[in-house]
Amino acid sequence: MKTLLSIICNRKVKNSLILLFLLFLYVGISAFSYANSISSDISESVFRLHVLANSDSEEDQNLKYEVRDALIEYMNTLCVNVQNKEEAMQIASSHLEDFKQIAENVIFEKGYSYPVSVEIGNFSFPTKNYGDVSLPAGYYDALRVKIGKAQGQNWWCVMFPPLCFVNVSSGIVPDESKEMMKEELNDEEYSIVTKEDSSQIHFKIGLIEWFMNHNLLTAKK
Fold it and tell me: What is the spatial distance between Cα 153 and Cα 68, in angstroms, rounded to a whole number?
């Protein structure tokens, strides 16, 4: 009798463990699918500008901002009527030498001789906040500008949809830029980017960031 009860109990334990494992597996797969899908969809809709300073010295950081301002001013003249990400990338790609020349001119005018490299590629980014907009971790297409050794803190904004603005002290992205981004994203993705529901968005961004930090996201091109 005891042996029979023991067998029954063991079967129940085994079945419970199997069910728990399957539940855990299902939740894990669902979380991964969600994180990968959100990260991929947002990254596919965004083209970023990324400027890396020579170092973290005050002088190099100030120089980075001078370069940034000049690049944004030029970029705004190029992309004023851009309607989609692909068009923005094509325009930027055809003006790489111009971006490089502008950066070099600013650096020279400020009394420095740092070399500059400019490229368009698909790069890994951690979760970043820009004003009241937040982009979750993932792989994003970006125009990357490296100043000198490019070992200092970086600065970034979004070239498309056009979220770049020089004075970030207000911390507010223009409504017209947000509307353009809203057209590119679904409601779930837009709520994450604009942090409309902070009680849930923090968890969702953290979930995406965890998969990104463990090299599990597959959105890289």
Answer: 13
